[in-house]
Amino acid sequence: MLPPTIPVFPLPEVVLFPNVFLPLHIFEPRYRAMVGDALGGDRIIGMALLQPGFETDYEGRPPIYSVGCAGVITHSEPMGDGRFNIVLRGLEKFRVTDEDLSKPYRIAHIDAIPEQIAERDRAQLRQQRHRLEAVLAAAIERSGAEPRFPPAVADEDLVNALAQYMELEPLERQALLERDGVLARCRGLIELLEMKSLSPRGTSWKGSLH
């Protein structure tokens, strides 16, 4: 369960999904302070996508999309000059309801958005996973590569990993995150793949899911 307030790290191109790993390099002073505080506490950081036009107020608090995903720092590497390399593992979606202005970095009041899969939906999700793999395999083969999928990965983890790792526009990823659950997200991915030919960022997973 997420706490009612969490630090938020807004970025223009990054969307985090539940149970997917995200490496980050932290160099801005305000976000170095954020990571330091998180490491001294519950290690939770929320990722949020900046809305278009953020450039004019990047040093301030430009608008973010209200739905994001919180992650827990599973690995941290402090560097000699105060920067950090960290790895987040996605935990749960959230909706921002307000912001706390008491810190140099952003702190959001949030409501958690759990994504429990009902038993009645599991069979449908498995069906949609097979359809997603077939559509993606066809796209990969068109690019001349060999499709490979990790069979041991849970249906929801595969869907979330593809939503994060595939070559999508940030707003497309945000729309997938905002879908009402993993089954709807899987259908959204299929729709995107059927609309245009996409090349995945890689056909090997290199331990990204676990």
Task: Show the helix and strand layout.
Elements: E1 5-11, E2 21-26, H1 29-39, E3 44-49, E4 67-78, E5 84-100, E6 106-113, H2 119-142, H3 155-165, H4 170-178, H5 182-195
Parallel strand pairs: 1-3
Antiparallel strand pairs: 1-6, 2-5, 3-4, 4-5, 5-6
Q: Explain this structure to me?
A:
This protein has 210 residues and is an alpha+beta fold. It has 2 domains: 5-113, Archaeosine Trna-guanine Transglycosylase, Chain: A, domain 4; 119-195, no CATH class. It contains 5 helices and 6 strands. α3 (155-165) packs across α5. A 5-stranded mixed barrel has the order 1-3-4-5-6.
Task: Report the principal-axis shape.
Answer: globular
The assigned CATH architecture of the largest domain is Roll
Sheet/helix structural class: alpha+beta
Overall strand count: 6
**Name of the top-level CATH class of the largest domain:** Mainly Beta
Q: Give helix and strand order, one letter per element, not per position.
A: EEHEEEEHHHH
Task: Give the count of helical stretches.
Answer: 5
* Assembly annotation: single chain
User: CATH H level of the largest domain: which superfamily?
Assistant: LON domain-like
Poorly predicted runs are 202-210
Distance between the termini: 20 Å
What does the average pLDDT come to?
Answer: 88
Portion of residues within helices: 25-40%
Q: How is the biggest beta sheet arranged?
A: 5 strands, mixed, barrel
Radius of gyration: 18 Å
Strand content: 25-35%
